[in-house]
Design brief:
The chain is mainly beta. It is 4% helix and 48% strand. The protein has one helix and ten strands. It binds copper (II) ion. The site of copper (II) ion (CU) has 4 residues, from β8.
Length: 165
């Protein structure tokens, strides 16, 4: 699928980006240059569903554009990037097929906005556990992040203290 995307899609289009005013909220000791994925977290899922959501903040502090080609996790059959758009007052999700990150840009995912949609979960996501996500970028290559799992319907990541170092 990644290969197909790469060849079908023309030039990088930045329309889908949420340029984050919230980048100052990014914590942690990431290098100031390069491409980083931080603040990853996921929501617990109730029994009886195999669909979940996760969030991550991606910053491209290089001087070239990059593109998120795909996301994988050992516990999900498929992961898509979704954006939330309002149509006639109703919030709907739709897949972002070309996740471009222009030089210097950031994409801050959050509930009600851009998110990662996990389908085909092999087991429910349990609060307190950690979800492993691998984000593959066209230029930067694969980046694996650990996403602590917050409670059902949580609006924010679990306490930072919950991170396993
Ligand atoms: Cu979604």
């Amino acid at each position: 699928m990644n290969i197909r995307l790469r060849f079908l899609l023309p030039a990088c289009i930045a329309l889908t980006l949420t340029v984050a005013a919230g980048v100052s909220m990014v914590r942690g000791g990431e290098a100031s240059a390069g491409l980083s994925a931080t603040e990853a977290w996921a929501r617990a899922t109730p029994p009886g569903t195999d669909v979940g959501a996760a969030y991550v903040t991606i910053e491209n502090q290089t001087d070239t554009g990059d593109r998120l080609l795909g996301i994988t996790s050992p516990v999900a059959a498929k992961i898509e990037i979704h954006e939330t758009v309002e149509e006639d007052g109703v919030a709907r999700m739709r897949p972002i097929e070309d996740a471009c990150l222009t030089a210097g840009s950031a994409l801050a995912m959050r509930p009600g906005g851009t998110h990662l949609m996990l389908t085909g979960l092999k087991a429910p996501l349990k609060e307190g556990d950690v979800l492993t996500l691998t984000l593959t970028f066209e230029t930067a290559g694969p980046l694996t992040v650990e996403a602590p799992i917050a409670g059902l319907g949580a609006d924010a990541p679990p306490d930072h203290a919950a991170h396993k170092m």
